[in-house]
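Task 17 of the worksheet. Students: predict the tertiary structure of the chain below and write it out as structure tokens. Keep your answer in the requested format; marks are given for formatting as well as content.
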Amino acid sequence: MTRTRIALRAALIGGASLLAMTGAAHAQTAQTPEQQQVRIEALEAQLQALSSQIADLKAATAASLKDVRTAQAATTVSIAGGKPTIASGDGAFSATVHAVMQLDAAWYNQDSGLPASVATGRDLNSGTNFRRARLGVDGKAFKNFDYGVLLDFGGAGTDGAGQLQELYLQYNYAPFKVKVGAFAPNLGLEDAASTNGSLFPERPSGAEAARSLAGADRRISLQAQAVGERWLVSGAITGAKAGDGASFDEQLGYVGRVAFVPLKGYDWLVHVGANASLVAQPAQTALAGAYPITVQDRPELRVDGTQLVSSGAIDSSGARHYGLELAAQKKNLLIQGEYFDIALDRRNRAANVSDPKFTGWYVEGGWVLTGEARKYNPANFAFDAPAIDNPFDPKAGKWGAWELVARYSVLDLNHHEYSTVAADRVRGGLQEIVSAGVNWFPNSVTKFSLDYLDVDVDRRDAAGLQAGQSYKAINLRSQYAF
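Model answer:
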């Protein structure tokens, strides 16, 4: 019973008592002294009974408030959605355990008669690799703070020995968020999306090359972000990556992103955005002064860790990239793409030598055959895995969610590759990849994907001979993530 109801009841009781006493006073003129005494004793008995009721109500209210406070302070343990979580009853503190297993098994189909000039990647490794093997915990502290710790034992080509993937603290004051630690700063549509629910096992090479300049995983950063219902603005100051070897001076960079949803309906939306990064001070790697920057990526598969396109180390005073984002979703159909322009500033550039510029772009899409729509994450303005309407249960005739996906990506790391000035040439290679696949989500924590990649690399060596190749690859990924 609430305090308001108690007060109202007490007022009614008091009013009834007052009326009874008033009536008694009027009746005194017609009663004998003995009758008046009897009535007074009856009224005193009623008042005593009412006082006892009020005391009982106060005791019951105090007990109820104590029970509520005890319930609020109680610690809860849950495993909703497969995520083990411990939380305080008032929601001020929580800790959620996370684990990710991504196991790839790939087969590379290469030509057997590659020319001798193809020195890199002549025999790519058909086999298996734990791409990600992560274990961590995240949660809340004092309501407004978020934290996260994540270790990764996976790798590219070979399983890793274990490294710090994320370690951060974030303060939330809607609509603002301030985050500090080691993490991947928000730097694009594909970059912000979770790798657990992405369309393909790896990001497009253009997105990977752009994010590697001043962003990417394990980057030590200070990020400020403001998020509205249909817009996001994010900016960060970045340094080296956690776990990198010491240098004479670490890199200093800046990254930024703006994104918004200009058009939105009941079951559709349009996303647009722009992103950029600046390497204001490259890392110094030699006492005499060397500031190398390398732009490169593996061909969108990590079972073999060989990088077939690379600018090589270019001594630079800085670097930058600009990116544009566009996506459209209608029910269970999603199409998205990004364009990236990358430029490096050579240090002590000689005459007739220009600053190299590179480009990358992709278009990809997914169609969920079972009708579910991919989720648009309002926290980072990127797309996650679809909700699973019918988790896998053969006895009940339920088969999870099935999705067809396709992608075309281009990464051009050539710059004046046929210049007559050797120092001006950058023969990093032109990589084009056509990919198609099918994703199966049995439930919210399990995913299997089968992908086909048609890779073409056009790259010249120092002598002008062909150092690239074309090949096909098939990859099967098994994933369990919570």
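Marker's comment: Residues 3-72 form one domain. The chain has two domains: 3-72, 99-132+175-481.
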